[in-house]
Amino acid sequence: MLIDHTNARVLDVLETREKQAILRWLEAGKESGLLASLEEVTCDMWDAYAQAPKDVFGSSIRITIDRFHVMRYFQDRLSEARRDLQRAIGRNQSAELKGSRWLWLTNPENLTPEKRAELDALKRKFPLLGKLADHREALRRIFEDRRINTAAAAIQQLTQWCRHGEKLGVYAIKQFNKTLQTWMQEICNYFVSRSSNGRTEGFNRGLRAILWRACGMRNFTHFRLRVLHQFG
Q1: What's the confidence (pLDDT) of residue 82?
Q2: What is the tens place of the pLDDT at every residue in 87-134?
Q3: Which end of the chain is more exposed for a tag (fewer CB within 10 A), N or C?
Q4: Can you give the pLDDT at residue 39?
């Protein structure tokens, strides 16, 4: 699905997310003038989404990785580290961590005082997980710091954050740092205009509602026309 964030509308729905399909659509949009004022593309960490606009428009546009996909990817690594720890410790201690995933991944301000106290107790008992949770909060603070308003400044902050994470010696964090380094420029482009894919996620729910009301649709052409009629 391709979204016009400026005018809050769906531009089109493609049958596949393969790079060639995206390239064909972008080239047609460029030739027709539909994308004449394109300045920025927001997407997740899928190579075709990031590379196809570069191939068509070159350096004239900015590719921005959605910050919420970055946070979700880190939270997946945090959950992975928690599961690894559960497998490594005894059964009794492992039982204390069972069902705590929500506590570790919820923003502290969204927890009740009782739940915050419960999380603090788990942090003291499992200090490595506590450090990982604090590391997550440090990443979130970087994304929410409005004083960081250039990609260069963001790169400096995230590079320091990665170095601190390496000291924790957790394999899952090393995996995340590797991905972060690969997409560093695109991730840090977020700090220029603070663009995100939030509206895209909203439209995705609308698309799922169309499929739900129709009890599924086998004909993609009909589905595409319904989406464009409703959201285009």
Answers
A1: 77
A2: 777 777 777 777 788 888 889 899 999 999 999 998 998 888 888 889
A3: C
A4: 93
What token pair was written down for 165?
Answer: 């994470």
* Phi, psi for residue 137 in degrees, rounded to 5: -65, -35
Distance from C-alpha of 117 to C-alpha of 132, rounded to nearest angstrom: 17
Residue type, 157: Q
Q: Domain of 41?
A: 2-66+196-231
| pLDDT at residue 55, rounded to an integer | 94
Is 87 in the same domain as 55?
A: no
Please give the tally of structural domains in the chain. 2
**CA distance linking residue 207 with residue 224, whole number of Å:** 9
Domain match, 78 and 154 both: yes
Inside any domain, residue 125: yes
Q: Considering only the C-alpha atoms of the chain, give the largest distance between any 2 of them, rounded to a whole number of Å.
A: 65
* Residues whose CB is less than 8 angstroms from the CB of residue 132 and which lie 6 or more positions away in sequence, other chains included: 78, 81, 168, 170, 173
Spell out where the chain has E strands: 2-4, 9-12, 40-43, 62-65
Which pLDDT band, with edges at 50, 70 and 90, does 152 fall under?
A: very high
187 is a domain residue: no
**DSSP secondary structure code for residue 126 in this structure:** S
